[in-house]
Amino acid sequence: MKRYLFILLFLCLQVRAEDGYKLWMSYSKIEDPKTLNFYKPRLQAIVWEDKDLEVAVEEVKLAIPKLLGITPKKGGKNGLILKVNPHINITNPEGYKVSVSGQSITIEAPRSVGVLYGVFHLLRCIQTGQEPAGEFSPKIQHRMLNHWDNNNGTIERGYAGMSLWKWYELPERLDPRYKDYARANASLGINATVINNVNASARFLSSEYLVKVKALADVFRPYGIKVYLSVNFASPRILGKLPDADPLKPEVQKWWKEKADEIYSLIPDFGGFLVKANSEGEPGPMDYGRTHVDGANMLAKALKPHGGMVFWRAFVYAPDPKGDRFKAAYEEFKPYDGQFDDNVIIQVKNGPIDFMPREPISPLFTAMEKTPLAMEFQVTQEYLGWATHWVYLASMFEECLKTDTRVKNRKTTLSEILQGKTFGYRHTAITGVANTGSDRNWTGHPMGQANWYALGRLAWDPDLGAKEIAQEWISQTLSRDSKTGSDIQSMMLSTREIYVNYTSPFGLHHVMGEGHHFGPEPWVEKAPRPDWTALYYHKADEKGIGFDRTNTGSNALAQYPKEFSAPFSSLETCPEEFLLWFHHVPWDRKLKNGDIFWEAFVKKFYQGVKEVEGLQRDWEKVKGKVPQETFENVSARLKTQHKEAIWWRDACVLYFQTFSKKALPAGLKAPERTLEEVKKIVDVYHIR
Amino acid sequence: MKRYLFILLFLCLQVRAEDGYKLWMSYSKIEDPKTLNFYKPRLQAIVWEDKDLEVAVEEVKLAIPKLLGITPKKGGKNGLILKVNPHINITNPEGYKVSVSGQSITIEAPRSVGVLYGVFHLLRCIQTGQEPAGEFSPKIQHRMLNHWDNNNGTIERGYAGMSLWKWYELPERLDPRYKDYARANASLGINATVINNVNASARFLSSEYLVKVKALADVFRPYGIKVYLSVNFASPRILGKLPDADPLKPEVQKWWKEKADEIYSLIPDFGGFLVKANSEGEPGPMDYGRTHVDGANMLAKALKPHGGMVFWRAFVYAPDPKGDRFKAAYEEFKPYDGQFDDNVIIQVKNGPIDFMPREPISPLFTAMEKTPLAMEFQVTQEYLGWATHWVYLASMFEECLKTDTRVKNRKTTLSEILQGKTFGYRHTAITGVANTGSDRNWTGHPMGQANWYALGRLAWDPDLGAKEIAQEWISQTLSRDSKTGSDIQSMMLSTREIYVNYTSPFGLHHVMGEGHHFGPEPWVEKAPRPDWTALYYHKADEKGIGFDRTNTGSNALAQYPKEFSAPFSSLETCPEEFLLWFHHVPWDRKLKNGDIFWEAFVKKFYQGVKEVEGLQRDWEKVKGKVPQETFENVSARLKTQHKEAIWWRDACVLYFQTFSKKALPAGLKAPERTLEEVKKIVDVYHIR
């Protein structure tokens, strides 16, 4: 019998530990004696009274037996004390305080969700070998995921299966996964989710669907997560059968007001609307000669009585072959600064183009002094290798958040601006376009889980570092062995620059496959829009490569504070990783290391491929030290990544060589295929 | 420690047993003493020598400890003896013999896959409390799944997530699920899989994708499963850059020949091609003035040297508003009988239209004497309630297979024809359009697993009954308690007729939502094609309803043997469940039970709804007797089914009442909504 039990136990652990479903909440057993000594005596009991603390208590009951091998009793004087205390003095109503005294740990917060956050903090501390104590408050109010999920279950730019939301089963069936989704987000402090694509179907606003949305909201509510909807601006026409959706028409305003009333009657804590208007063919107020302000404020007024918010996206650009898409958002939105209602946030992508592997910050963040801006990061790897390339995005998020904008001519990080410190924002928000899907492990690439994790942690505290977040995540997932942990951490921290090296060195951008955004296609000269080609961006010719955005070119740099743009404006002082963003760089320009640009450029692609090989070697070393299924999964994906890194290298080097007409740097082996052969690969992916 | 083990064991069993991933291969512990007494002594050891038996042995090693609580030793004289014996005398090379003697059970087969089938037979016997013995051979050669999976991961008419095949991970990463898919199929005897949609992308024939296909084939091979591809007939143009794909042009023939050579160099046991040509906009030989024979035989010649097959679909119909789609396949294919090459099979859907909840058999099955025909069933519930309605399809498959076609003016079941007995087919095949997807439980609806199971079992032996298959399946999944088992079996066997009652009584057909095929939309009068409307089929007017296919109408009945069609030809003798398939039935026509047609028709819809309520009540009774997660999952889906049954009832009754202009039968409560209100529901599902 005992032997049989062990077999089962073994099978059970195997199944449970390895498929990635449990994310950073697998709560595997703590081995460190110091941690056990500290926590075991203090977690023999759970003490609570408030009924709202049910999910927090449930999490403790799930986690502690697994982590510490003990089953906390209920009640008593000592142990884990959970308390909702509306009178507690704290920076943010969602914050919490943790204190340790004698045989007890007390988590206290003005709201039950704060206690839940405190519990997750405690569980994180147990797993990272830290002692919990202090006051913790989120630095950002709205910590949000954007799901680009369609009503047919597909996910735009999703690489991990179908939508998590099973629309045809809702509202009757609640997939158990909805709750695990909420737990995962709450564990990070994410408190808002936009459940449908910004290219929005009006279907979601129908009464038929709102009861489905309500069912999700009911699951998420105990975890402090508000539901938002992306809305189709033409809904009054599509659903309401009005002749149009002109925001200045009373009947249109009435339709939205009544729709808002209907939503709030079902979902009293509904978050609000996210809107992509007059962008990439989506309807918007400009269809009727109105403005973003007219559109956003109309929606804001419908939501206002209920406390709802409008997130209005600044991702807009006009298809002008001679223009500079870089400048579009600023040009369209800057004039409206100060004109938006007080429950409107303008949601801005981190860079001026579109989630490239490396972008300079969007100038809007430095320019909108009277309008709160939300940061939109992309967690799904649309331009960063989908779910087969290992890219730890926290490095990129951190680079962006820690950028010194020089606003007010002093050190002003973008993080500070987002926290509202610089311009006194009424609302603060950080959002991420989710990388989740119905794949068993949620994110396709096992290491993609770390990007969801990092987005959540940075939304709570944008001053955290990619390095510490990686360590936290590793301790809760792959290994608590310090050597293994630091090896994996080093790999993670290297991945983003490696990806940049073999796809977009020196600020090369927008040279990926047209439409699907898979693989390299720097030769794209025709697309449904001129600003969807590659040539629009890299402007390679026999002299050089890159987009001159200085005052001799599009002068996009003028949109930044002068103190920020100054170094970028000159070829001499421009940080080399941003060169092609701002300059048309001559092929034979000498760089700091003495190489001419062409040679340095080519070397980066080769370096990137070599670095992937290094990743492969380093990953082999953790074999046996991380769950086997994860090990194999990552190993296999690294093979794909290596194959595709060579593809990128060959495509870019061979293609740009047709302009530079220069030989490869000495010592580099020429690609084993011709440009024509490389071009054929991406052709396959254009076949419908 | 022991307590901790028990907790873990409990969690472990919960996780393992309930999410449905393991299908009918969860191998839960046998409790029946008689079964244990018989098998335990005989399964103390496994004896084998042949290396090809690795996967069969692996399955035994996985299953026996779970089923019987013993771990078989390797080798010895007694125990489970597995043998490949090429000289064994057996009906079919894929068959096997099982014999019991003393303390041994011997499974012997001419090929290793036969031994594997024998092992799965043994495991099924253990779980159904039977003793294994005898000779077992499949009655059908090609036992096949058709996956309508697209290259972007979506599944046409799929309701259980994304495609199982992760094209962007292949060939480097092999999802562990591929192997479990192969195991599940092998356990049923399925030996062929067409992995991509019949609306085929040429992409799959590119060299880039063929190595991915090869990777899948390598996983499936040990399980006796051959891979097939659906091919786009225009591939020589799309991929090969030829000016066209005219099958009579030598360069087109050469392209296909070389492509076949390329495929077989990668996949030596590649199965062949499935082709949807000149159907619903797909390219085909008729684009160049050629025929189905020209097209099919050209492909057949390319595959012939390698032993590959062409499955050429007869699902063709021309958009003629005055025509009868019923007759199209026969009219197009009958003239070619005898002209196809000997490695071509014509694949025919079970009915003449398109997988309706109840169809008469396709007349082609009775008419093609010199051409082997494959049966195409649909396992995914495109027209049968997607993944939210519980419909056990084996009832429908059985009804079809046991239909007495009266071919040769004697009792000739369709099953016999498919087995090749009637016309002496060179090849025999039964295929099913798969209902599998990436959902954790594979099929969305937990009870949908039984449909995959049944398709496989019937493809092996089309003379099996829905009832016995249900019992087998239940014993291996939900319960081995005989009362619970027979309760669930009764429910399963009732479900198909219930679905017919509330959606398509008396042979009503093609009245579902236009395009998406969701919910009722009997009022559809405009669609991209006239034969995609509902009015084309039901032809309701003030006199009556139904499509006259007798000699006063389209005379489609003339396509059947006279002895078969005779009873259908007269309103007096036509089986009532097929009335509207063949007659325009007056609303006030008296039926056998004395009701006029209108009243009987309406009563069926009401009855269907009541029956769903009955299912709900009956399902409640198995609470605690089946895995809890499955119980809740099915309960919730039954709620949805009930809601939608009422929707169907209200839609059809209110709409057809506008023609009959008659009151509802006494005692029936009128729908609580108006026709306009019901129409709005399906409108929502048309919003993009």
TrEMBL record, chains A, B:
Q: Which SUPFAM superfamilies match?
A: (Trans)glycosidases, beta-N-acetylhexosaminidase-like domain
Q: Which GO terms describe its biological process?
A: xylan catabolic process
The question of whether Hydrolase is a record keyword is answered with yes
Answer whether the UniProt record assigns the keyword Chaperone to this protein. no
Please name the InterPro entries in this protein's record. A-glucoronidase_C_sf (IPR037054), GH (IPR017853), Glyco_hydro_67_aGlcAse (IPR011395), Glyco_hydro_67_C (IPR011099), Glyco_hydro_67_cat (IPR011100), Hex-like_dom2 (IPR029018)
- Active site as annotated: E280 (proton donor), D354 (proton acceptor), E382 (proton acceptor)
State the Gene Ontology terms under molecular function. Answer: alpha-glucuronidase activity; xylan alpha-1,2-glucuronosidase activity
Enzyme nomenclature, EC number = 3.2.1.139
Which Pfam families does the record cross-reference, listed alphabetically?
Glyco_hydro_67C, Glyco_hydro_67M
Q: Where is the Glycosyl hydrolase family 67 catalytic domain?
A: 137-442
Tell me which residues make up the Glycosyl hydrolase family 67 C-terminal domain.
Answer: 443-667
Per the similarity annotation, which family is this?
Belongs to the glycosyl hydrolase 67 family.
Spell out the protein name for this chain.
Alpha-glucuronidase
Organism whose genome encodes this protein: Leadbetterella byssophila (strain DSM 17132 / JCM 16389 / KACC 11308 / NBRC 106382 / 4M15)
